[in-house]
Amino acid sequence: MSTQAVDTMIHTEHQRRGVWRTLALMGPAFVAGAWQFGPGNLTTAVQAGSAYQYTLIWVIAVSTILMIFITDMSVRLGIKSPVSLISSIKDHLGGVVGVLAGVGVFLICLCFSVGNAVGSGLGLSMLVPNTSPVMWTVIVSVLVAALLMLRSVYKVIERVLIGIVALMAVCFVVSAFVANPDWAAAGAGLLPNAPDGSWLLIVALVGTNLSINAAFFTAYGTKERSRTEADYRDITLVDTIPGIVAPGIMTALVIIVASSVLGQTGEGADSIAGLAKVFEPLAGPIGGFVFALGFFGAAFSSMITNAMAGGTLLSDAFGRGASASTSVARIAAGVILAWGVGITLVFQSSPVQLIVIAQALTVFIAPILAIIIVIMANRRSLMHEMTNTWWQNLFGVLGIAAVLALSIRLAVSLWG
């Protein structure tokens, strides 16, 4: 074999290794996206499509762009933080701020666990007719608890979630094309427009798609996977951007499906179960099954990440370790799952009051987390050459303004 042929083979092998190494950087942002793309997100998207057809798709686009920038800051914080994000917060902003951030995220996870539990049970009951959603809630919660007990739990969960995100993407892309939407009208929905009476729904869409909790946790996935500054550019291209854009696109597709179904059947739907039922005459039983499968994937993935993130941050807040594999993190994750199952069993339906409490907590916690992320990303003593640029700060401030607007609107609704 000639020297040139050998050199070509070596170069090809290096390229192959380079491609696989780059793809191996996928993970933390997909975990955040899976958490973000939960039952609440889908239900809000269905309501947007049913009530206002394609006109609110632009909200998803704007929220996704802001989410990318906030998540990018969290990735850089994960790279530069010596131990964990909360430990760095304690060092730079004080121990009280660090503890409050961790406990605040845990409390939000505790409350959101109910929606995830109900959603996973509902999703499987749609896939397996004439079965009890509550029964499936218990089964799925036990399965998630078993996953969280595995060794190297974060890496295992990360791989599972990347697979689920891929499954959801296929389900919702197929659903959108089967629904045969008006793609021109969907494209026009990218132009900002606020129909009368839509502002509360716009705020809700921003709140579910600009998930500061999920962005905050990305720093932990980045640290868990030992990402370095040399990896940053590739992380941005193969993880941060696609990991956040994927749930944004899927949310937009749900709006498109709801809009198309309404346009062709004349029936609206204000819930996922309602949309799947209305969707069946249009797409047939298989179409309804595919859509329900996507919904179950969203609920299941959000349940996993919600429990893992809440446990990890509570463990870190109290100095017991910044990994999902610590005993404190696993116990806290178990508490989150048990709370979701317990409330579901007691109420046997969606516990609206607890969801309201979760929103009230978000009013106080999400803007604080956003502000902390932006402040920490500007700490030159920590970030050095990875400190925020002026344009990154611009998008960070816009993100803070968005969650503050959400907080004010929710506060008015809750206290009004």
From TrEMBL:
<dbReference type="InterPro" id="IPR001046">
    <property type="entry name" value="NRAMP_fam"/>
</dbReference>
<keyword id="KW-1133">Transmembrane helix</keyword>
<dbReference type="Pfam" id="PF01566">
    <property type="entry name" value="Nramp"/>
</dbReference>
<feature type="transmembrane region" description="Helical">
    <location>
        <begin position="50"/>
        <end position="71"/>
    </location>
</feature>
<feature type="transmembrane region" description="Helical">
    <location>
        <begin position="354"/>
        <end position="378"/>
    </location>
</feature>
<feature type="transmembrane region" description="Helical">
    <location>
        <begin position="390"/>
        <end position="412"/>
    </location>
</feature>
<feature type="transmembrane region" description="Helical">
    <location>
        <begin position="199"/>
        <end position="220"/>
    </location>
</feature>
<feature type="transmembrane region" description="Helical">
    <location>
        <begin position="328"/>
        <end position="348"/>
    </location>
</feature>
<feature type="transmembrane region" description="Helical">
    <location>
        <begin position="282"/>
        <end position="307"/>
    </location>
</feature>
<protein>
    <submittedName>
        <fullName>Nramp family divalent metal transporter</fullName>
    </submittedName>
</protein>
<keyword id="KW-0812">Transmembrane</keyword>
<feature type="transmembrane region" description="Helical">
    <location>
        <begin position="160"/>
        <end position="179"/>
    </location>
</feature>
<keyword id="KW-0813">Transport</keyword>
<keyword id="KW-0472">Membrane</keyword>
<feature type="transmembrane region" description="Helical">
    <location>
        <begin position="241"/>
        <end position="262"/>
    </location>
</feature>
<feature type="transmembrane region" description="Helical">
    <location>
        <begin position="92"/>
        <end position="115"/>
    </location>
</feature>
<feature type="transmembrane region" description="Helical">
    <location>
        <begin position="135"/>
        <end position="153"/>
    </location>
</feature>
<feature type="transmembrane region" description="Helical">
    <location>
        <begin position="19"/>
        <end position="38"/>
    </location>
</feature>
